[in-house]
């Protein structure tokens, strides 16, 4: 029996609560399958750790995490710690340090999930965003000049390398070919006359190797409009770090809400561990009340299962989510139910084991 070692970083706010249900889901998948198991080690890093130690995680954290097969992250961020510290000194440090250059975020409307778009059906909203995850607008370099003077100037660099753009675009083309879906590149080449013109150029270059894939291109403002007016036009989507971050939150809004929004940070080369997380944030206003929606965390656990090669169990987890939504049972208050976080997670577990 193969044992996978998983590093668990519950993080802040509702992170520990939803993380318990992700772990429960993975253990249920292992028990149902019978050919693999999980060993979990938990690390208390995050904002509370920062307030006690002056750092979001220890200096040698990446060396510690390097030994694991994958990482589960709950949430990062809490009042009292500036957001640019909580994000950049944990989540982005792991993404960059482990070259997790592919971010995968499904935008899929499951039957029974709430949707604000009038008349939208599940078959109308079924897309996968492939977001560049290691450079671009979030590279983190720049300058802050003449602080606290009338001449104060801030420069935020965006870094787009040929290697970085080509590998994420090629990954998206491969996925589009595999899924037999169209591929839409989203940029802003009319205004960003260096970075996005470069992105568009590389999309065209790589696209020549995929004559069988239907290729589309949209400016980010038009893409935002079409995601609301005509979401069925999208299959696989590839875009930059910033645009992908913003558009996938819009995607969550039209496909059931943030409580169903999952994300995978992949190192496809498997040189380093990949990281899986719900993207709803730490929600400090409801932390500790036992009402947080764990389904996004369960969905991210399904992404982990698929990445490890257990797609059948990943599909079982997604079907379990769909069953709760379809039957409108064991759902948390944000989804119109009365279940607690753990009751929802236990319902998923029962369906996984059935």
TrEMBL record:
GO MF entry, a single one: D-malate dehydrogenase (decarboxylating) (NAD+) activity
Q: Which UniProt keywords apply?
A: Manganese, Metal-binding, NAD, Oxidoreductase
* Co-factor requirement: Mn(2+); Mg(2+)
Please tell me which top-level EC class this enzyme sits in.
oxidoreductase
**Pfam families found in the cross-reference section:** Iso_dh
Q: Which SUPFAM superfamilies match?
A: Isocitrate/Isopropylmalate dehydrogenase-like
Domain Isopropylmalate dehydrogenase-like, residue spans: 5-348
Annotated EC: 1.1.1.83
> Which InterPro entries does its entry note?
ICDH/IPMDH, IsoCit/isopropylmalate_DH_CS, IsoPropMal-DH-like_dom, TTC_DH
> Which chemical reaction does it catalyze?
(R)-malate + NAD(+) = pyruvate + CO2 + NADH
Q: Does the keyword Cytoplasm apply?
A: no
Q: Which family does it belong to?
A: Belongs to the isocitrate and isopropylmalate dehydrogenases family.
User: What is the name of the protein in this document?
Assistant: D-malate dehydrogenase (decarboxylating)
| Annotated organism of origin | [Clostridium] aminophilum
């Amino acid at each position: 029996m193969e044992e996978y070692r998983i590093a668990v970083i519950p993080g802040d706010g509702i992170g520990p609560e939803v993380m318990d249900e992700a772990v429960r889901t993975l253990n249920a998948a292992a028990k149902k399958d019978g050919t693999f198991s999980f060993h979990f080690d938990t690390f208390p890093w995050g904002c509370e750790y920062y307030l006690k130690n002056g750092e979001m995680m220890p200096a040698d954290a990446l060396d510690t995490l390097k030994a694991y097969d994958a990482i589960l992250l709950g949430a990062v961020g809490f009042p009292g710690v500036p957001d640019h510290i909580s994000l950049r000194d944990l989540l982005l440090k792991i993404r960059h340090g482990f070259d997790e250059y592919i971010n995968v975020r499904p935008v899929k409307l499951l039957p029974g999930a709430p949707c604000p778009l009038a008349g939208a059906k599940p078959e109308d909203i079924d897309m996968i965003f492939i977001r560049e995850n290691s450079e671009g607008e979030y590279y983190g370099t720049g300058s802050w000049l003449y602080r606290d003077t009338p001449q104060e100037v801030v420069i935020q660099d965006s870094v787009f390398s040929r290697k970085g753009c080509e590998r994420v675009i090629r990954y998206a083309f491969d996925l589009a070919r595999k899924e037999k879906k169209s591929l839409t590149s989203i940029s802003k080449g009319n205004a960003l006359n260096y970075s996005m013109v470069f992105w568009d150029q590389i999309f065209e270059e790589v696209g020549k190797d995929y004559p069988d894939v239907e290729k589309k291109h949209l400016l980010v403002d038009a893409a935002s409009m079409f995601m609301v007016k005509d979401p069925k036009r999208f299959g696989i989507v590839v875009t930059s770090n910033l645009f992908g971050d913003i558009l996938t939150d819009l995607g969550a809004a039209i496909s059931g809400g943030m409580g169903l929004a999952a994300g995978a940070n992949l190192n496809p080369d498997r040189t380093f561990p990949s990281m899986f997380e719900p993207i709803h944030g730490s929600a400090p206003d409801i932390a500790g009340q036992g009402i947080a929606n764990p389904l996004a965390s369960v969905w991210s656990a399904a992404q982990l299962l698929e990445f490890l090669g257990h797609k059948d169990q990943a599909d079982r987890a997604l079907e379990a989510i769909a069953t709760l939504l379809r039957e409108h049972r064991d759902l948390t208050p944000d989804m119109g139910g009365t279940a607690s976080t753990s009751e929802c997670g236990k319902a998923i577990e029962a369906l996984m084991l059935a």
